[in-house]
Amino acid sequence: MNVKKTARLRRARKTRSRIRRLGMPRLSVYRSAQHIYAQIISAEGDKVIASASTVEKSLRSSLEGTGNRAAAAVVGKAVAEKSLAAGIEAVAFDRSGYKFHGRIKELAEAAREAGLKF
After folding, report:
1. Do residues 72 and 107 make contact, with C-beta atoms less than 8 angstroms apart?
2. How many structural domains comprise the chain?
3. How much is the pTM?
C-alpha cells in the first residue's frame, strides 16, 4: 500500500474511534477519481441505514459528470433525505481521512442544507 493511502487510513481510524465513543450514527464518505459514495451507518457499526452514490442510475442520469463537486452535492442531498426518512436527524461526519475540501466539503454542505445535523 502506498504512503498516501496509509496516512489517510490512519487518520480515518483515529476519527472513527472518536465517533464510536460518541455513540451516534455516522455519515461515512468515500471518494474515488470517478465516483463519490456516502452512507449512514448505525451507532453500533453493524447496519447501513441509508446510502447514496453517483453509481446509482437515478442520481447519475441527472448529472453531467460523476467525479465533480456538483455530483457530490447531489449525493449529499440524497443521503440526507434518505436518512431523515429513516428517522435519523443527527449524525457524526466521518470524512474517512480526506481533507474537508472540494467534493467532501460540497457533500457535507448539501447534507446540512437538506436538514441533516452534524
Report:
1. yes
2. 1
3. 0.94
Q: Which amino acid type is present at position 16?
A: R
Residue with grid cell 474515488, as numbered in its chain: 32
Res 1: pLDDT:
81
Please tell me the number of Cα atoms within 13 Å of 28 on its side-chain side. 21
Are the C-beta atoms of residues 74 and 65 closer than 8 Å to each other? no
Helix locations, 37-102, DSSP H: 57-60, 69-85
Joined together, the cell numbers standing for residue 13 give: 481510524
Q: What is the CATH number of the domain that holds 79?
A: 3.30.420.100
Q: Is residue 33 part of a domain?
A: yes
Question: What domain range is 74 assigned to?
Answer: 3-113
Give the whole-number percent of the chain exceeding pLDDT 70: 100
User: Beta-strand (E) ranges in the chain?
Assistant: 26-31, 36-41, 48-53, 92-94
pLDDT band for position 92 (50/70/90)?
Answer: very high
pLDDT digits (tens, 9 = 90+) for 12-30: 999 999 999 999 999 999 9
C-alpha cell at 102: 472540494
Neighbours of 95 (CB within 10 A): 21
